[in-house]
Amino acid sequence: MQIEKSILINATPAKVWEVFTNPEVTRKMGGEYISDWKAGSSFGWKGADGKMYTQGVILQIIPNQLLQHHLFRPEDGHSILSTITYEFLDQQGSTLLLAKEDPVESYEDASAGWDAALQAVKELAEGL
Q1: pTM of the model
Q2: What is the mean pLDDT of each run of 10 residues along the chain (128 residues)?
Q3: Element housing 47 (H / E)
Q4: What is the C-alpha to C-alpha distance for residues 2 and 118, in angstroms, rounded to an integer?
Q5: How far, in Å, CA of 57 to CA of 83, rounded?
Q6: Domains and their CATH numbers in the chain
Q7: How far lies 106's CA from each of 81, 102, 109, in Å?
């Protein structure tokens, strides 16, 4: 079952993009993304404790517009758990951030997690 979420952020797409790609900003969410931000490159979330919590590969990337990546199953590190897509849509100085995850095995848990994550992105981007 696919999850689709969106949130309107009172910040430009460039500022919202920075929440993902600038470790100084991202650390305010309790960790940082580890990647060189190129298609085909590894992508993962490292917590403040130094542990890698997620791993994947970037499929598509257009700065300030699109980020799509796989997430791998933590058990084996290479079986695809889901594909996540973020779209950053310019709304006259604000950003409509669209997030999709497909497929999702535990819909309820993942859906609630998305709500919290998007709210954190909104708060950080609007504070920049």
Answers
A1: 0.89
A2: 94 97 94 96 94 94 97 80 95 97 73 88 96
A3: strand 42-47
A4: 16
A5: 10
A6: 3-127 (3.30.530.20)
A7: 11, 11, 6
